[in-house]
Write the structure tokens for this entry.
Amino acid sequence: MTSSASSMPRNFDLTDRVAVVTGASSGLGAEIARTLASAGARVALVARRQDRLAALAQETGGTAFPCDLLDDAQLGGLISQVAEALGAPTILVNVAGDIFSRDPAEAEPIEAIRRTLDLNLVAPFRLCQDVFPLMASAGHGSIVNITSISGQVGIPGFPQASYAASKQGLAGLTAELAVQWARNGIRINCVAPGFFRSEINDELFQDEQFRQWLARNQPLPRQATFDDFTGAVHWLVSDAARHVTGQTVVVDGGWTTQ
């Protein structure tokens, strides 16, 4: 990892920075963790599935921190555990998120609504609060919240009201924290992915009609992969984006331009 970091432009080098990545046991979270580790960061890998975290830790040189973000006690102790083991984090990437109801808005169970908001909005907010004093003490820090185009536009045929609300709420939180914490040297931005295959929508992508529909309706017809998002995250957490805060970078193949 040292050779990879030394060969990249200096502004993208993350050598010795401590980065916390939630949702790191699979998909986009795991790929972001790999990307930051390859840039030299000491990565705290956060998720519930310990076996997957252990494998990723061995692969990347990161450190596994098993944590259920819906458990208040586990969530509240996470950042202090990372700081004690690796040093104070100056990078936080909130990737973990899920959809707990596919029902139309009028039928979403209240339990699913609360669970969605707790995981997708409340947990990232609390982690931001917990890293704030550490980043403020360091005089710099970068937080990236993974939102979604679902928080920006309604998508016919895909009922996800609480999910969309949580992601739009996370974008609003990002803008507010960016203003409040700018004087502390802390930058907060979002990356909003469009359609890409992940665990929460794998069944959808198994449908050939959906894949054809996506190819017809997305300006860039190629199906997105995790690599299409990790570069944006790497840029935002690095010094290459040191004058960027409060922004949402949309990576959706042009979907929201229509």
